Amino acid sequence: MTFLGTTLRTAVAFAAALAIGGLASAPASAGTRAAAAPDARTSFLQGCGWNEGRGGERAYYEHCATNTNVWIQVKRWPRSNYHRCVGPGRTNLDADATGAWYDSGYQGGLCSHPGDTGP
Fold this sequence. Notes:
Helix content is 20%, strand content 26%. It is of the alpha+beta class.
C-alpha cells in the first residue's frame, strides 16, 4: 500500500472515531466517568415514534405532538399491515406489531378520531 493510501485510511479511521463519540480524543479515564444526564427535551424526543416491546411490555407508538392526531402505518407479521389514527401520547399496538411510522401520504396524514383504522 502506498503512503497516501495508508495516510488516507488513518484519517478516515480517526474521523470515524470522532463521529461516534470522540473516542479518539477522550482521556483514558473517560470510560469510568458517569455519562452526562440528557435534558428533558432530548429524553422526550428519543421516545417519539415506534418503540419496540421489551420485558413483556407491548410495542407502542409515541406521538409527541400535543395538538394533532395523525395516521400511522402499523406493520404486523404474519397478519397484514394497516393504518391507525393516534392522538398525542402513547398508543399500545398489536402483540404482533413489528413496526409503525407516521404516514403523511394516507388521507393527508392527519385524522380526527384516535382509534380509527384503515387499510
